[in-house]
Amino acid sequence: MVVIPVALAGRSYDVHVGQGLIERSSELAAAFLRKAVVPVVADKNARQHHGQRLEQALASAGHSATWFDVEPGEASKSWESLQSLTDWMLANGVERGDHVLALGGGVVGDLTGFACSILKRGCGFVQIPTTLLAQVDSSVGGKTAINTSAGKNLIGAFHQPALVLADTDALKTLPHREMLAGYAEVIKYGILGDADFFAWCEDHGASVVAGEDEALTEAVAQSVRAKARIVSEDERETTGTRALLNLGHTFGHALEAETGYSDNLLHGEAVALGMVLAARYSHRRGLMTASDADRITKAIAGSGLRSEISSLEMRCNGATLVDHMRHDKKMEAGTLPFILLRSIGAAFLDREVSLEDVSAFLDEQLTAS
Ligand code: GLY
After folding, report:
1. Residue 63 — very low, low, confident or very high, per pLDDT cuts 50/70/90?
2. How many whole angstroms separate alpha carbon 173 and alpha carbon 77?
3. Percentage of the chain with pLDDT > 70?
4. Are residues 157 and 212 in the same domain?
5. In whole angstroms, how large is the CA radius of gyration of the chain?
6. What spacing in Å lies between the alpha carbon of 138 and ligand 1's midpoint?
7. Of 130, 155, 173, which residue constitutes the final position of a domain?
8. 95 assigned to active site
9. Pocket test for ligand 1, best of 6, 138, 159, 328 (most atoms within 8 A of CB)
10. Of all residues in the chain, what percent carry a pLDDT higher than 90?
11. Are residues 96 and 164 in the same domain?
């Protein structure tokens, strides 16, 4: 097991990465288990796969669990779910000093974290992420939110967990497609800030997505280290450092919007395509070499993720995609910050990108064969 501290004044916590952590959860989270009956918010699938192990762990320390089931999918990040969850927490007597466990992927983590940020003006929570994407990204860093009809993650709060238990055994039941989607966020850390880790991903990516224990633990641990470093430097995304985590996301969100935020294109799949576009656009702007952009494309395609937006067969042009970008919550005073690249491992924030130029670039990419 690897323990990675997230250093934040007054809100520091540890992320544990390794195998068998759900079995050890009552020991690892002992300091946060005040109630005899522990409130657990869980994705229905995660509960089915891992609920028994968690219950046994709690029982071994004299606790039992009371469950709030969450339907899998983004639709659960809603006002309705938030209301049901907070009502349930109040009915179960959750107090400020208590901690709720969140078992599942990003949807459960975001919903539970947000509910905990407002319950009695803030109670604690422990993340037990069960998807690769949640282990390497959303469970760490304290971004919590729900969606509204105006867009994704528009209502939320920064609320850090007290502890994260990233049990890599939980990934054994994860569908391959979701494993791949999570891997996009792993390789992202290499592309944005760590050329050595990118090279490691080129060599070990296949083992990671195949779920081989050693490679998987190394990939999750290295990703969490990178995220912890960035979050410690810029918890509230005010200096531009945390914004680097949005590499591939502005392009990716436009693709997700065009494909209806649906199973047609998972978030990680969109981010993978977005990173290829960011790399190629950086090359077009003369910022990065063609060979670095090709290496990024090859590493993404080689893992099994899509690298070409033309393969999505969307009936749209560059202007349509740019129009989706104009609704991005990062849009500020008519400009949209893009994360671009000077080389592999050297991302930066560019606030001067011309959306007309991006539109012309996307037209080329949509028709490329
Ligand atoms: N997922 C991006 C962030 O946590 O800032």
Report:
1. very high
2. 23
3. 100
4. no
5. 20
6. 7
7. 173
8. no
9. 138
10. 93
11. yes
Q: Name residues whose C-beta falls within 8 Å of residue 103's C-beta, 6 or more positions apart in sequence.
A: 40, 41, 42, 43, 46, 47, 50, 51, 54, 128, 130
Tens of pLDDT, residue by residue over 299-338, are 999 999 999 999 998 989 999 999 999 887 777 777 889 9
Q: Is 212 a catalytic residue?
A: no
Residues 159 and 12 in one domain: yes
Looking at the fold, whether 181 and 268 belong to one and the same domain comes out as yes
Domain stop point among 115, 143, 173:
173
Compute the distance from residue 245 Cα to the ligand 1 centre, in Å.
Answer: 6
Catalytic residue among 35, 77, 253, 306: 253
Indicate which CATH number applies to the domain containing 277. 1.20.1090.10
Instruction: Report the candidate in 251, 231, 252 with the shortest Cα–Cα distance to residue 241.
Output: 231
Instruction: Kindly state if the Cβ of 344 falls inside 6 Å of ligand 1.
Output: no
Q: How many domains does the chain have?
A: 2
366 vs 358: CA distance, rounded Å = 12
Residues in the chain: 369
Residues 246 and 342 in one domain: yes
d(CA 52, CA 69): 14
76/155 same-domain check: yes
- Same domain, residue pair 139 and 195: no
| Tens of pLDDT, residues 155-211 | 999 999 999 999 999 999 999 999 999 999 999 999 999 999 999 999 999 999 999
Q: Do 63 and 85 reside in the same domain of the chain?
A: yes
Ligand 1 centroid–CA 137 distance in Å is 7
